[in-house]
Design goal:
Elements lengths: L20 E5 L11 H5 L6 E6 L2 E9 L28 E5 H8 L5
Antiparallel strand pairs: 1-4, 2-3
Bound molecules: iron/sulfur cluster (SF4) (2 copies).
The site of one iron/sulfur cluster has 14 residues, from loops.
Length: about 110
């Protein structure tokens, strides 16, 4: 995912408390041909947003709003110790520690 896509936005579903981890969309995201499976797993409105892929304008990709994500992991396909979960069928979502995220992108304004 492009760095610019990870910049915090001013979301409607903004969190008051920091989660320990955030969902991060990798370059493996296909946009699910315009019908993102992951959105159906996410319990937070306006958290996973389909946007135009800057590298391939005919395709979409998901962006996670870092100020809305609660770190619940429902969108991921990987569970603890290598187990598999219902989640992105393309394994395009990883969880990142919020400390790591903020080191790279700056402190989030919770
Ligand atoms: S993150 Fe996975 S489930 Fe969501 S749109 Fe991308 S490929 Fe589809
Ligand atoms: S971790 Fe939970 S809140 Fe965050 S994007 Fe995934 S499903 Fe949504």
């Amino acid at each position: 995912m492009a760095d610019a896509a990870m910049q915090p936005k001013a979301p409607p579903g903004r969190r008051k408390k920091k989660p320990k981890q955030l969902a991060y969309i990798t370059e493996a995201c296909t946009g699910c041909a315009g019908s993102p499976v992951c959105q159906s797993y996410c319990p937070v409105d306006e958290c996973m947003i389909l946007v135009q892929n800057p590298g391939a304008s005919t395709f979409g990709v998901i962006e996670v709003n870092p100020l809305a994500c609660i770190g619940c992991k429902k969108c991921t396909a990987k569970g603890p110790e290598g187990t598999f979960l219902d989640g992105c069928p393309w394994d395009a979502i990883v969880m990142v520690d919020i400390d790591e995220f903020e080191t790279k992108y700056g402190e989030l304004p919770f």
